[in-house]
Design a protein that fits this description.
Elements (H helix, E strand, L loop, with lengths): L3 H17 L23 H7 L13 H17 L11 E7 L5 H18 L3 E7 L13 H14 L6 E7 L7 E2 L11 E2 H9 L5 E7 L7 H4 L4 E5 L8 E3 L7 H10 L6 H19 L7 E4 L3 H9 L23 E2 L1
Parallel strand pairs: 1-2, 1-3, 3-6, 6-7
Antiparallel strand pairs: 4-5, 7-9, 8-10
Helix pairs in contact: 1-3, 4-8, 8-9
């Protein structure tokens, strides 16, 4: 559910984006927002201070207000860096959403994914990263509901809907009610549930899409997301934890297995999932963990379209994993 303050911030950001970037919509689509009349009662200062620890904000970073004010410009700049679409063949647009700013493991995964796809899959791949982390407040747009909508709206205008493929990779903590943690304290960011994500995607004309949800209980995202032309991959089944996050981890189990290991061996997302699932199972057995049981749902047509995309490039060299923010020496298998 979206808060009234976030509606106000999204509205302001939309107005700024319309001013700075001609041709963009005046504001995000505001799925699930209350009526504008509700905005008059909002006290932004109270909302920022009441439920968040302002003292945890990095001392060298811009203020929370400055970060929010900068989002339209940062989104414009990030979208401008996508590079031109390669004509005559399917292109793939990678949109990474790293939701939890309290642990570096999700930033590590987001940054690695962008580097991997650029190096391995060539000019037909275009990457956009949204992430919450103290280290990237001035370099990456926030992973927020409003920025996600803006990114999808903008990608929908540059992609060829009958050919191109959207790959949305979300990584964060997940809850038993199938919501992803979206957090960059003290900013008042809305959480993202399975039905929310399905509703947002349904508003945009993506015929071909791959949605990867790397979080605990992420299997609960499969039912609302499944459909024709859609491949859904999740790190766990709907009632199970996945592993590998925490302040002492560099990358999650699923991120390591699917991104680092499998996609460095094959550009086939479905084959990579099979390899990753087997690898994760071995790690969990070794650590005596309850199996996470990653899930896959293959909608009609998407496997063939991904095969057409793979014909458009020769895979580049493998990319060793190097964390953007290294974790401490000791590691444990913490559930996401």
């Amino acid at each position: 559910m979206r808060s009234a303050l976030t509606v106000l911030l999204a509205f302001a950001a939309g107005v700024l984006l319309a001013t700075w970037w001609p041709g963009q919509p005046a504001m995000p689509s505001l799925v699930g927002h209350p009526a504008p009349a509700a905005l008059a009662s909002v006290d932004p200062d109270a909302a920022l201070d009441s439920d968040a620890d302002v003292d945890s904000w990095p001392s060298q970073a811009p203020t929370p207000e400055q970060v929010l004010y900068a989002q339209p410009r940062m989104m414009r700049d990030a979208l401008a860096q996508l590079g031109p679409r390669v004509p005559g063949k399917p292109n793939l647009y990678l949109l990474v959403f790293a939701g939890d700013g309290s642990e570096d493991v999700f930033r590590n995964e987001a940054e690695y994914a962008a580097r991997l796809f650029a190096q391995r899959f060539g000019a037909t791949t275009h990457s956009l990263v949204l992430e919450n982390n103290p280290a990237s407040l001035t370099t990456r747009p926030l992973a927020s509901w409003s920025n996600l909508e803006t990114a999808l709206e903008s990608l929908g205008k540059v992609m060829q809907p009958d050919q191109d493929i959207l790959l949305l990779y979300l990584t964060s903590h997940g809850s038993e009610d199938h919501s992803l943690l979206v957090d960059m304290d003290p900013l008042p960011l809305d959480q993202l549930g399975a039905s929310d994500l399905a509703g947002i995607l349904a508003m945009h004309p993506f015929k071909w899409k791959v949605v990867v949800v790397n979080a605990c209980y992420s299997g609960g995202f499969v039912p609302p997301l499944r459909g024709s032309g859609t491949l859904v991959l999740t790190a766990a089944r709907s009632d199970r934890s996945s592993f590998g996050c925490g302040s002492d981890s560099d990358i999650t189990y699923f991120g390591k297995a699917w991104l680092v290991d499998a996609l460095n061996r094959t550009p086939d997302f479905i084959e990579a999932f099979k390899q990753a699932s087997g690898e994760i199972s071995q790690w969990e057995q070794k650590d005596k963990l309850t199996p996470s049981e990653p899930q896959i749902d293959i909608g009609s047509g998407i496997a063939g379209q991904l095969a057409l995309w793979r014909k458009g490039f020769t895979p580049g060299p493998t990319l060793p994993f190097k964390p953007a923010t290294p974790a401490p020496a000791s590691t444990t298998a913490v559930a996401q």
